[in-house]
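Batch 3, record 17
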Amino acid sequence: MSVFKEYALSYNPFITESHDFPMVGRQRLKNELQETLTSMLESGGSHLLVLPGGYGLGKTFFLLKTKEWLSDQKFIRQKAIASFAKALPYKPPPKYYVYLWSKIVEDLRFESFGMLRKEVAKSAKQKSMSEDSLLSNLDQSFKNAILKIGGDQEYQVFDWLRCGKLTSKTRESLGITYNIDSDDSAESVLYEFLKLLKLLDHQGLVILVDEFEYIFTVGKAKSIQFVVAYKLLRDKVNERVSTRHDLAGLIFVLACSPGVWEKLVEFSKTYEIEKGGPGLAPFMERVRILPELETLTDQETSELIESRLSKARIPSREGKVDRLYPFTKKYPPYIREKSSGRPRQIITYSSYIIEDSLKLGKDEISDDLAEKILRERGLIVDLVVTGQRPEEFPRVSGKQRVEEVERRVE
Amino acid sequence: MNRINPTELVIVPLDSDIVIRLVVYSERENVPIDLFLSFHGMLGLRNCKASFIASTTPKTVEYTVRTPKKCCFIPYLGRVSVMLENQTHCNSELNPIRVVTERDYFEYVVCDELRELDFVAERYGGKDPDVTAYHNLYPEEIFDVECTLESPYDVSKFNHDFGKYVRERAKWNFTRLLLVSHSTYITPDVPRVISGVKDANISLITFVDLRRLRSQFRDGSIDKKDVYLSLIKRGLIQLERGMATSEFMAQRVLNIAFKVS
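Prediction for the assembled complex:
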């Protein structure tokens, strides 16, 4: 039995990074997102949405929850598929569309393609036509790949879809003529996928892009290239939708820290002036910004802590101890204040506090004890009045400030 | 990183506390940091320093500053410099600050509450309306919002607010008057007088009920339309559910996060 049994818990409830906890608060943002996605999917075409949220406010968690909600038709009326991807891997990819498409496929997983394959069979049956005729408007290779799902070679198909390199012999056996190894082929396959969704009456694909701000850490030219990639995809989908009406909608939800977004707005203006040409402005004009992720209130902090504790609570002690136990009622407002209402910090600090309190043999965790632990751990740092005159402090010249901003953008 | 060099103006009441909370974290472990905090000269405060080891677990550096006892504008509260190995890693000026009286501060707070409720609101104050607002869904209805700190809210106070509304309504195209009383003590004759006014749409809400409305809106139990319908109810608006407090002079907290790499 875990040492946490002293607190009627099976394990430290704050140590897990799992995203399957219920979301606390954010109801207003959820409602706004629901309205926006519904109207965007209804109108069709492609859209760009930005979800601003500061450090540790739960952008990733909100995106993952959005993915979960989108699989439930109570959230939006329309049929839509959602996929989660990080904006950038550890190293900037040489072919951005290849990277993005491979991440979309990996996140959709084999099961989603299997489900779409079943929908093809069902739809063909309903329309009393062959599966081949139903998909006749799709590119031959993509069509063959989809039709092979469920057969002996389905894992090879999935490997091809996620931009794996197949030998010409394998491709031949699958009826596929190319590998998805260039930005052009990745882009084409994405359009084919949107065509397939349209044929199966899905209103769209929602791509939830996390850590969008990291795009601005790879150097000006490269970051503009990546940003423009989104804008071009959006424009091309809209062009096709308005002329050929054969694609389902494509919505990007880009999670980004607000500071970086504000700098990007500034940067897009100066870039235009310095370099000429459209720069980032066309992208910025096409973006719709969602309300910023808010910090948690005292009540929401309390709910966050309770939900974590409840998951780790020893079943036999459920209902016999207070929902907040071992924390006292004063703990949630205290930890909210010290963590500035940032969920990530609340969870990290609580993890240390519960561990150290156990080591100290305390029966319950008050705000005073938490303060003592955080100070001993060096997580709350005291400022010392130095009495130094301002000129003895590091001074920042105007030039340094400009350099600083540029360095950050780079 | 959160906002660096934030330009958002922070309104604070005079002789009150502002908590500066800096969160410093790093992508790697064991990064020695010197953090300097120097204040704007108008505050007459001595400068501070903290030396610590940054890591992936965020460290919280906190400092409380007392605002001046006179109304004034401070271009920036202070400047934070983070140094790594005696080299300036990053600098950030803290927000510009406007120090106002308690009465003016209450008007700003009401204005913020209305913005949270999806209104477009602007605080004017003085001889002008305290706050003008319209709801995003119904922009044709323009509210004159008059805010009152005095307790109790009685007929003479109502007459003063209503008189101001009558004088200003043509100039500002007001279609409604919303009275926000900080005091929950509304004398019984006020709702009666309001119902007797036939040619104006007047609503009265206590500040605590306005906060309740916001808490209901935030937790999703009511939507934008419900908010609007609640605030256009004639006479005294009363809410039963929702947690709220009438405290509006709480400490202002300036949060800023630094990532060092």
